[in-house]
Design a protein that fits this description.
By secondary structure, this protein is mainly beta. The chain is built from three helices and 29 strands. A hairpin with a 6-residue loop joins strand 21 and strand 22. The termini are far apart.
Length: 463
């Protein structure tokens, strides 16, 4: 096996002693002070010369693309990055030569200014400039753990005043090897059914997160009312695992999938649990989900992610498919279909309560790249054949338009707006509006103004 080093240096972790320093100030590093610097080096296991093993394991041929950035997740005294939002660190575009090898360095990241202590590296991935993952550090419970000497997780003791280098072994990978990501896959059950899974967290007033115990009732939704009941009081389990931690199971259901459009009505009830004690056992989420939305949770041909609700937590449901029947808010949804020959597809969800508008847009097959922004607006028209002029911008808080990421051109947009009276008046009834996403390449030139997906916004109300 051919090995060579890729040092990702310059990922600095500092213990912040001088709390009066502003963001514009640069702290002076004193070797005698309580400072700690952590850098990663990556040992690349190049599998190009082991074609027989590649065929057996489904590992693609390693590419020669230069690394553009890395994604990491560290846990410990302070947590850095999450599965949903890992920390992104850019790599300097020009390497230097060391012992005949290219040596790359990451740029400094202020997000890694941490106090010294014990940390664990649980995720490390390297990406090229196009946003494609080119190397991944395997995990102990993954299929490729035996290919490296030290699979993740890696324990790191970060001492004060020490510049510590940690070597991370990474492999060329196949995106279907989900064990390397830590996600759970479920097979589609039969040809006439699709699978939908739910996982939940519950946060009591203390703010601590617990795996939620809950039950689900499901009906076929036909002509605006409940039809045949598919599941009655189906519940998950919350138990202590071998490490003494409370662990909840996702709740998975097979749903009938006909040749036409299918829709299912859900009621989710929060249950008491030994993990967090007794609660008022009441319905906390209601609403419908279409077969198309269910299929959007499939990642590839044989993989499946679950829908995640967070009851009582600061972070909301992801995505906000169902609504809380105890709220007075209005909920809206739009299915986004391709425009102008694109292959973009997605969904938009809106929650309007008084003058607060929460907007969530999820779309795939968009063009990705640093300079390829995707303007998105609510338009005045009520159908995509004549959506009219834009009347409300769905931009980022810094005023920029969102960008797509990953090899699938994935956009995941979330923002809460506080609307002024004129903005509320201009929006009017959202069920009379459409949403458009823009941006595609035409004749070799990227045109950010061309619509690539549109959807009519529908009001969702349930008794």
């Amino acid at each position: 096996m051919k090995n060579f080093k890729l040092f990702l240096g310059g990922i600095a972790v500092f213990a912040m002693l001088f709390t009066s320093c502003s963001k514009e100030e640069t702290p002076v590093i004193d070797n005698g002070g309580e400072k700690a610097t952590l850098s990663f080096g990556a040992l690349l296991n190049d599998l190009v010369t082991t074609s027989r093993q590649q065929a057996d394991l489904g590992i693609p041929v390693c590419v020669d693309d230069a690394p553009a950035y890395v994604e990491v997740i560290l846990t410990g005294d302070e947590n850095v990055g999450t599965e949903e939002d890992p920390l992104v660190i850019d790599v300097n575009p020009t390497p230097i030569q060391e012992n005949g090898e290219d040596v790359w360095f990451t740029q400094e990241s202020g997000d890694l200014e941490l106090t010294p202590g014990s940390y664990t590296l649980t995720y490390f991935a390297v990406f090229n400039a196009e946003g494609d993952m080119i190397w991944l550090a395997p995990t102990t419970d993954g299929d490729l753990a035996d290919f490296v000497d030290n699979p993740l997780p890696l324990d790191i003791n970060l001492g004060a005043g020490v510049k510590k280098y940690v070597d991370v072994e990474v492999l060329c990978f196949d995106d279907r090897l989900v064990n390397e990501y830590g996600y759970l896959f479920f097979d589609i059950i039969g040809k006439e059914a699709i699978e939908f899974c739910i996982f939940g967290n519950f946060c009591p007033p203390s703010g601590r997160h617990y795996p939620a115990a809950f039950s689900v009732d499901v009906w076929v939704w036909e002509d605006g009312e409940k039809g045949t009941q598919l599941y009655d009081d189906l519940s998950n389990t919350v138990e202590l695992n071998d490490d003494g931690d409370w662990a909840g199971t996702p709740l998975c259901m097979a749903l009938p999938d006909t040749s036409g459009d299918d829709e299912y009505y859900y009621e989710i009830t929060l249950l008491s649990s030994d993990a967090y004690g007794d609660v008022i056992e009441e319905i906390i989420r209601v609403g419908t989900i279409t077969d198309t939305e269910v299929k959007s949770f499939f990642d590839g041909e044989d993989s499946l992610d679950y829908w995640h609700f967070r009851e009582g937590c600061e972070t909301g449901d992801e995505p906000p498919i169902f609504q809380d029947p105890r709220e007075d808010a209005k909920h809206y949804k739009a299915c986004l279909y391709p425009e102008n020959g694109s292959e973009v597809f997605g969904f938009a969800y809106f929650k309007l309560e008084d003058n607060m508008l929460r907007a969530t847009v999820m779309a795939t097959n968009l063009e990705k790249g640093q300079h390829k922004t995707h303007p998105q607006h609510i338009h005045e028209g009520d159908n995509c054949d004549d959506s009219g002029l834009p009347i409300f911008d769905l931009d980022e808080q810094n005023g920029e338009w969102p960008r797509a990421h990953s090899m699938w051109g994935w956009l995941n947009y979330n923002r809460v707006f506080t609307l002024s009276d004129p903005e509320l008046a201009a929006l009017g009834q959202l069920q009379d509006r459409t949403i458009n996403i823009h941006g595609m390449t035409v004749d070799g030139e990227y045109v950010p103004g061309i619509p690539v997906a549109c959807g009519a916004i529908d009001l969702h109300e349930f008794d």
